[in-house]
Amino acid sequence: MRIISKLFFVSNFVISKITRKQVWKKVRQKIGNIPHLSIDWDVLTDRFIEPVIWVVDHFADSLGKIFVSLVWLLIQFVVGVAYWIGLSFYWDISAELTIALVIFGHWILLNVVFHYYMALITPPGLPPDAEQIPHIKARCKKCQSVKPERTHHCSICRTCILRMDHHCPWLNNCVGHFNHRYFFLFMVYVVLGMIFLFIFGAPVIVHELSISDASEPIGYPVFHNGSHLLPVKQVEEVSSPRSRSLRRAVSVTVAILCAGILAALGALVGWHARLISRGETSIENLTNKDDREAKRLEGSTFVNPYDYGSYENWRIFLGLSEGRTWWCVFFPSVHPPRGDGISWCFKNDLTHVSFT
């Protein structure tokens, strides 16, 4: 046992040393110093990324339509299974509980469908003509359009997008100033729906998996008419083993799908919530990271000009101004975002928002 424990300790020590970043850098340097073997790691990385970029540039539009169709199919599949298996399970337990779950579940479903549809059809925002904003002199080097603050060029859409966050293949659309709120709230309500399904779907899956095929009685029910035993005509047929196997397979499939969606979108919601709290987009997070590091080396602090504090950043992002309340977040609303996507000076134009 002592020998095994020592070997375990030594192996952990070696692995920890190898996985250190400094050791990896030394390995790269030694490989690069080998005679007749010169490796340019930037070129090597580009070689691996080039095929991915080529696929995205040439097939992004077609793949985007496929991804959008998959999203609608997944929504219909999960909702259909919830009705098929879950509704009957809870109805046998309590009709009142079932009605409450149906109402709450349809509130989530309404928000998911609404925000996804609006994120699909809402243009993210294009820069206006140069005549409308003569004070902006910057122009895009790729499409030659005027380039206001926070505007970036999308190589897939082949145009500039106001306050561009990223191009989303699941929307087949860019996420920009006018549809960013729809995109984020769609993810939030999907995550909420996955949590809802896990909480109230767990008993259903346990019930489906605990039903044994061998537990069914052999034969058929009969009754005695005084002299003979006669078969009883059953009103409801007992589910066959094949039907129970299908229900189990479908239940497990939905559970695996929901787990994957919850993990992926949960992490994405947390990431975007962090960026919104800091007044950044995904693109700005990358550029600001370099600026923060440069300022840190200079001994100063980087200040994001679009950061008004977490609370105000969320109000601006959700469009909670001009008398709008939090009902616009909890229920579908088509109100536009704060600002026009061109000017971002809100310090003297932040209005109070009620929580009622």
UniProtKB/TrEMBL annotation:
Keyword Acyltransferase: yes
Catalytic activity: L-cysteinyl-[protein] + hexadecanoyl-CoA = S-hexadecanoyl-L-cysteinyl-[protein] + CoA
Domain Palmitoyltransferase DHHC residues, every copy: 138-288
Places the protein is found: Membrane
Pfam entry (one): Spore_II_R
Record carries keyword Secreted: no
Transmembrane intervals: 66-85, 97-118, 182-206, 249-271
Catalytic activity, EC: 2.3.1.225
Superkingdom of source: Eukaryota
Species in which this protein is naturally found: Daphnia magna
Keywords: Acyltransferase, Membrane, Transferase, Transmembrane, Transmembrane helix
Domain notes: The DHHC domain is required for palmitoyltransferase activity.
Name of this protein: Palmitoyltransferase
Membrane topology annotation: Multi-pass membrane protein
Any one GO cellular component localisation term in the record: membrane
Primary gene name: EOG090X06RJ
Record-stated family: Belongs to the DHHC palmitoyltransferase family.
GO molecular function: protein-cysteine S-palmitoyltransferase activity
